[in-house]
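A.,

Following up on our hallway conversation. Structure tokens first:
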């Protein structure tokens, strides 16, 4: 580890990382947790290194791995479902279907809604068997805006889609309304 304070870089490409590989959870019962992640979230068991000398399982789907580490005396984090607590989030394309399936499986969950600049994001939060929180949302509806490229604005000043100020076809390129809101927020001054 370098001790110089100048080693922290503001360069977004400073670390040669590719993507998030996996999330690791300690669980009281590996079989129970495997069943949950397979049946509720559609993960599949994959091979893990045979050199490991501890109970566990690796699962994969949706471009991410879940590594479960067995520990019989693991303390459950289960309590009231709190969307402001630590969680992992998965994007989905059909929130109504997710809602229906969680109800069919008797999975307790809470909902939340985020509204920003004319965009609505629906969220569902629930726990795995050990109390680790999971969110499923349609967060892809909310544009990712780097703070360095947009000034902070009051919510009342956020631009809304207006066909006259920003047509959805510009130089032959077609934009969705969420992209237009993004572009307006970058180029319209309050």
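Then the amino acids I'd put at each of the 190 positions:
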């Amino acid at each position: 580890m370098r001790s110089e304070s100048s080693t922290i870089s503001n360069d977004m490409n400073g670390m040669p990382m590719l993507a998030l590989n996996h999330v690791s959870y300690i669980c009281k019962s590996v079989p129970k947790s495997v069943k949950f992640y397979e049946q509720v979230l559609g993960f599949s068991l994959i091979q893990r290194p045979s050199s490991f000398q501890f109970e566990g399982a690796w699962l994969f789907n949706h471009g991410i791995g879940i590594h479960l580490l067995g520990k019989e005396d693991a303390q459950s984090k289960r309590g009231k479902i709190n969307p402001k607590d630590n969680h992992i989030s998965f994007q989905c394309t059909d929130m109504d279907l997710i809602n229906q399936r969680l109800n069919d499986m008797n999975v307790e969950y809470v909902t939340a809604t985020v509204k920003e600049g004319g965009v609505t994001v629906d969220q569902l939060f629930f726990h795995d068997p050990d109390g680790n929180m999971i969110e499923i949302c349609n967060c892809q509806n909310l544009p990712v805006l780097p703070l360095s490229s947009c000034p902070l604005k009051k919510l009342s000043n956020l631009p809304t889609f207006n066909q006259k100020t920003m047509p959805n076809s510009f130089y032959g390129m077609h934009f969705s309304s969420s992209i237009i809101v993004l572009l307006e927020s970058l180029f319209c001054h309050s």
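The radius of gyration is 21 Å. Curious whether your intuition agrees with the design.

B.
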